[in-house]
Design goal:
Layout (H helix, E strand, L loop, with lengths): L5 E7 L4 E10 L8 E2 L4 E8 L2 E5 L2 E5 L3 E5 L4 E4 L7 E9 L4 E5 L12 H4 L3 E6 L1 E3 L3 H14 L4 H19 L10 H16 L6 H8 L3 H12 L3 H19 L4 H7 L5 H12 L3 H6 L4
Antiparallel strand pairs: 1-10, 1-11, 2-9, 3-8, 4-7, 4-9, 5-6, 5-8, 7-12
Length: 290
Amino acid sequence: MIAASEHIYFAAPPLPYYLESGVTNHERGDQHPSRKQLGVFDLLIVEHGCLFIGEDERNWQLTDGQTLLLLPDRYHYSVKPSEEKTRFYWVHFQAVGEWQQTELDHSGINQEEHYNRFLTSPYSLHLQKAWTLPYPEQAFRLMRTLNKAGGERQSSAFWTQQQTFEELLRMMDLRQNDSYTSPIVTLAEKAEAYIKNNYRFEISSKTMAEALNFHYNYITRCMKQVYGMTPIDYLSKYRLEQAKLMLLKTEWPIVEIAQYVGFENVPYFSNCFTQQIGLPPTKFRKQYTT
């Protein structure tokens, strides 16, 4: 039985990168080798048959179209030999950035304080540890492309494999599929998108509630849980980040920039900018000019 509570998060960028891949065919009685502290992530994708695999104190029985992501710092072993012909693909990859495995509560949100950095960093790749693929044939096709590229010249194989691997990650990223994403995360992301698309104009609790069809207090609670800030705080932060870009990319006066990013009161804009960035707008621009 595939447990749905364990998930693995990768802060991105940088994205995990491909190392090597292959396909294994088991006859009846064959089994997966036992390894410990392998140092790389090992993604298994079963095409047909049944693979009995364990990690530390856990074990799984993977059948057609199911996947398992084994961690680089754990002990992996065969639970028992294959009982039938079994074919599975494997991918070894590495992650330079932060990652963590965690369990979710009933709402789909991890309550640990340090979890927020994965959702705001500026993106987190969200993979389920053990999963039944919704479109297994697509994953098999990508795996065949990965393995075939291994026989090509390195200069061309590198780009084919990295791009194909990223396509595989995108297909498996639960945040790309609303049906697998927590409603809290989905609403927070919709609120974020609304703010980014409308930051130059007046945004009120009423306009946001009407646009998203949720009570503003609930929107606020979701954004605080996912991004660690209220919609108003996020709006102010985003406006100031856009102001930074305008100060660097244009010669517009401070007044015009303030109004362009949604601040009607210029002194208030300058005060907010100074508090968040650490310098007044004029000094911020001056440090990048000759």
